[in-house]
Amino acid sequence: MTAFALGQRWLSGSENNLGLGTVTEFDARTVSLYFPASDETRIYAIAQAPLTRIQFNKGETLNHKDGWQGKVMDIQTINGLNFYLVENPQGEQIIVQESDISPLISFSSAKDRLFSAQLDRSHHFALRYRTLKHQQAQFQSPLRGLRGIRAGLIPHQLHIAAEVGNRINPRVLLADEVGLGKTIEAGMILQNQLFAEKVQRVLVLVPESLQHQWLVEMLRRFNLHFSLFDEERCADFANSGENPFESESLIICALDWLVNSPKRAQQALEAGFDCLIVDEAHHLVWSETSPSRAYLCVEQLANAIPSVLLLTATPEQLGQESHFARLRLLDPERFFDYAAFQKEQHNYQPVADAVQSLLADKPLSEVEKSHIAALLKEQHLESVFQDLTSPNVEIQQKARQTLIENLIDRHGTSRVLFRNTRQGVKGFPRRIYHPITLMANAMQSETLKAQWLLDFLKTQRNKKIFVICQQAQTAVHLEQYLREKEGIRATVFHENMSIIERDRAAAYFADRENGAQVLLSSGIGSEGRNFQFSDTLVLFDLPQNPDLLEQCIGRLDRIGQLQDVQIYVPYVEKSADEVLARWYHEGLNAFEQTAPMGMALFEKFTETLQKVRSNLTALSDLDNLIAETKQARETLKIALEQGRDRLLELNSNGGERAKQLANAIAAQDNEAELVNFALNLFDMIGLEQEELGESSLVLTPTGTMLMPDFPGLKEEGMTVTFDRNLALAREELAFLTWDHPMIRQGIDLIASGDLGKAAMALLINKQLPAGTLLLELIYIVETQSPKGLQLNRFLPPTPLRLLLDNKGNNLAEQVSFETLHGKLKPLSRDIANKMIKMARPTLEQLFALGEKQIQPLAQSYINQAQTLAEQSLSAEINRLQALQKVNKNIRQSEIEILTAHRHQSLDALAKATWRLDSLRVIVTNKE
């Protein structure tokens, strides 16, 4: 490779879209390049740098950074830098330094490969063209970033992910009830933002016990590789002086660790994250006079990091003051006065009542109309109110929908708070409680329960039983007991196992034919794992508070559970466990219903409960406790129901549009186009493929692959499926969609590589003279711009096809790509090379004609993209500006950023270019 010098211009062969780079630094091993067109910096190992030195020869056209073009008259090299004598458009000859060349360079080696005999097979060219078409379609798909999750397609989750994920610097509170998937929602929002390249560096703060849950969830469901950070890991950087938080882009750590280590908290603050996610945010204690250390730590990070997602309990569980504290973290300028917030929330209650009438198709009272009119005072609602009483049902429904949508837009917190309830989402199975009272005898309590479990499992041979113990050791001992006593196939699952070991245990339990009948899990070990394929839960040990109980039941009772959940609780009569079980069931009804007020009641009655559990001779006290708890629960339940914010729920679940989004993704699952492309891609790369029935496939690397390492493929191979339901049932299978890293990186691999750039083929056609020459040209129209602008929405790398005959006529409209490709036959390399040498003069003429013909075609696509960008971005700006007048939660900074993006986007699109990407020479014969 040519020796490097500061200021030299080089092109990245693996990332052409970066534009032309400038050498900014180098040493004996590495070289750094800055790419001004895309505002990116890359560091390459010199020995393996995929770089091409850009040098212009006499007679070639050079693009100046000021926007003009000129013809190169002469070239000199001084100290490793090129200086060009260039004739500008005014006919003047001026010296252009290498550093003055435009970074917006259009470069392709297709012609060089053709004339230097570097030909690929015709089907490689076809794969390349199809890949480019798929790449274009995926960049423009509204489903991109939403469909790749390994989870069921739940409308309200998809709605939140699409709504929040499309924002610039979203700052929201996710407060769904337990079991509705807040972690999945956060992951989908994050994946959407990562796909759009709106964020690159993410910090997730969680309770210590949930670190592995998040690590597993992000990897298994989203293929996001996070790193766990703790003091031991950070200590490795002590001698280097580096900030450990700058060493990875996706980081999970325990919040308590940062709180107790101001040094690490400061390093996290200085590391430049652009997205912060905080789980269990309701544990951040705050009051106006004494906020907790944890709250202050998160507040400091939230003030510095543009995007913030807080996962928390429902506002009803939190209480208004605590709920306000969460909102204050998101927007301290908007939520600065708790008293004003209370007043504002109180004013929405009459409107929420009116919305309930609209949802129930009931007539609005005059009082309800006045409340709605007061909130929508800038609108003239007389005609809308009249339409509500129209005999035409369609007119009625349209009027109701118009009012509801306008009220949602003006809701006080609907833009920053998303909260779904089980009552609002529906579709959950029943929970059926089975108390198992064991008669006390000489045996220990644990032995009695183990004997009962053994007998129970013998009667449930065809069922999958999920057992939760309090301690990992209990689960291990139970597995040994069941195996030795009755040969029952059981597997354990606890926090002392590695993630891989837990994956294997989960897969063994999920296997319906040869798998374990029972999974014995510790309470902590099962966090983050859901087993909806099982409908039977045994609580061998009772969790010690209602939230933990709900988490345990939630392993089975989740969206996607198709059967009623059977809950078995064995306990010895007149024991502390019986007291707790009865209080949970009779006092809280926590086994058969979710209890959002459970922890509030637990805190209120915990002292009395512990006294009763300690004094088992006075069970009459238990009856009194249950009666008091039940009465308090009913009072709280009525208050919660009256306080339900139906406007907020309606905005959070997405309604009919959310269902349409789920249906659109379902229609793409397992589609033939994806399967055919993937199989063709894997075959071309050289992966060994072995079918395991119709729905899964084993991929294994081989020694004859086109590249040594295929992105995402494990050294030992992997089993994949295109079937979402199968992927949900068998976690060891990789779920392939257009969003999966193997497919995305496979597309990038082909599009940015040289495979298929130049090919030659034979067309047998008796109606054409033998030796007729056709030239198929694939051009790419693209823009080189900062990633954050997301210009691929408007102008992704777009392949444009020309099919030129001997005279330069474009036959692409008359002869489709697939029709032509299906009729082509291969040519031997020797014959192909000889024919290309003979036909070079004709081909050069056709290339020149192609350049002329592609210009108006490419420009039309650029013009369309500019129009689309102008319309789309202006519409969003206008919408936010209109909403800002009636809803204080529209941040001015968001509008300003969007306005700047519009200007930058239109400017970048105006500079869009096109380049020849690939070509295929076709020669005809009679037979």
Could you explain the architecture of this structure?
The protein is an alpha/beta fold. It has 6 domains: 9-105, SH3 type barrels, CATH 2.30.30.140; 122-139 and 738-925, no CATH class; 142-146 and 157-331, Tandem AAA-ATPase domain (Rossmann fold, 3-Layer(aba) Sandwich); 346-415, no CATH class; 574-643; 670-736, Dihydrodipicolinate Reductase, domain 2 (2-Layer Sandwich). The protein is 44% helix and 18% strand. It has 31 helices and 31 strands. The strands form 6 sheets. A 7-stranded parallel sheet has the order 12-13-11-14-15-10-16, with helices on both faces. A 6-stranded parallel sheet has the order 17-22-21-18-20-19, with helices on both faces. Helix 27 (724-729) links the parallel strand 25 and strand 26 (734-735). Helix 3 (155-165) crosses helix 4, helix 4 (182-195) packs across helix 5 (211-222) and helix 12 packs antiparallel against helix 15 (393-409). The longest helix is centred in the last third of the chain and has 56 residues, at 829-884. It is globular, with a radius of gyration of 33 Å. It starts with 8 loop residues before the first strand and ends with a strand. 39% of the residues are buried. Pfam families: Helicase_C, RapA_C, ResIII, Tudor_1_RapA, Tudor_RapA. This is RNA polymerase-associated protein RapA. One of its GO terms (biological process) is regulation of DNA-templated transcription. Belongs to the SNF2/RAD54 helicase family. RapA subfamily. It is an enzyme of class 3 (hydrolase).
